[in-house]
Amino acid sequence: MKPFFYLLSALLILALAGLFVLKQPNGQPWLSVADFASNTQPIYDKLKSMWREVLTHVDDIVDEGDSLLNEQEKTKVYRWKDSQGNWSYSDEPISSDSLEEVSLNPDDITVMPAFVSPKTESKALTTGKNQAPAASLLPVSPQNALDLYEDANNVQQLMDNRAKTLQKALEKNGG
User: What are the domain boundaries of the chain?
Assistant: First the structure.
């Protein structure tokens, strides 16, 4: 189907181009550029004015759309300084003297879950605000923490003994 369409298109283009080349019995070509240029100036002017009008309407529509999108896309975020002077951010306002409302574009920010320290979470557990267990933030269970501490001390003793042995060997060979 495509080859037939290409062949038909090529024949049509050759036929139109031939009208500019082939001559009538009086020696003039069947078509010339002058045939189009003299009659098209009023049409060209009208199309040009219509195109300018369309472009101004398109610009108005685009400007309105941008302003609406910018208003809708803005995200309200609240920020405040804590007791240590650090800025904190949230999507919900809190009661604070230094609370400020900030509008942000969501494409410009990365949302991450808040970090909850084990101390803060254990306080929340006692008040019943958070139902997650405090041990979920620790890499090991509290029962294994003592074993890890003892293992670390044993490794430290091995490293100290090895350093002493190496120092003695260096002193013996060097002097």
Answer: 23-73, 74-104, 109-138
